[in-house]
Amino acid sequence: MSTPAAHAAVAVVARDPAWLRRWGGLLLAAALAWPLLVWCEFDPRVLFEPRGLAATWRFIASFVPPRHDAEFLATLAVETWRTVAIATAGMTIAFALAVPLALVATTRLSLSALSGRMAIGPAWLRAAVRAVMVALRSVPEPVWALLFVRVVGLGPTAGVLAIGIAYGGMLGKVYAEILDSTDPAPTQALLRNGASRLQALWHGTLPSCADECLSYTVYRWECAIRSSVVLGFVGAGGLGQQLDTAAKMFAGAEVASILLVFIALVALSDRLSLWLRRLIA
Question: pTM of the predicted model, to two decimals?
């Protein structure tokens, strides 16, 4: 038989003890976000203006059916392959940049840190490498592409270099953080017993984080494919340039076909990531 004391105990348990802090944080975030939205002149009402809605509906209605004639599909296949090639070549350059940057930036393989505080020289070197990675990833890919277009001209080369430089900084940062977040005991034990840094990395650090590094690499490859859309707008070629042309001509059927290809490529990258994780498991 329940008693008033039991009901009171249940009510105390059911009540969230942190509700005041949670709601206070939410209200504070809203109070900070509102002036930012006003400052950037964000006005969601423009999305519901009758003229805008009518134009949007006409453009979306032109998506059906997607264009699927043989000539367009042949062109789409060539540009799809070029887009995948741009992303893959860019990721190859990024990986070649990121691995040495990450190995220098991580503290996990530091010999001087084994005895306690890292030596001044290695500490400054790691700080300099991290600053380089910050500089590489601070400049957006379209800006890198515009710079490289001035050097190598219009075409996929500018897109490959833009992805390679920007993603090199991103991959290097994340790789270093993943290496630093692993259990230090196996790596330190190998280093203390005379193993080289490469041996300590290969046998002590990577076994516990290889799947995470692989998953993030495949994810960045997926992001590189998506980035090629924007890079195509600045003349880097691939599906992005096709999408830019179709959108400017209000060719909704062509836009729909290109978007379906991008969805298929992202789904394929998900399957590839899953297969690779199972392969190394």
Answer: 0.77
User: Both ends of the chain: CA-CA distance in Å?
Assistant: 54
At what angle are helices 156-180 and 206-233 packed, to 10 degrees? 150
Distances from the Cα of 122 to the Cα of 94, 98, 118, 180, 206, angstroms: 24, 18, 7, 16, 22
Domain that holds residue 25: 4-61
65-91: pLDDT as tens digits: 888 888 888 988 888 888 888 889 999
Both 43 and 107 in a single domain?
no
Q: Are residues 29 and 107 in the same domain?
A: no
Task: Tell the burial category of 19 from Cβ atoms under 10 Å away from its Cβ (0-12, 13-18, 19+).
Answer: exposed
Shared domain for 90 and 183, answered yes or no, is: yes
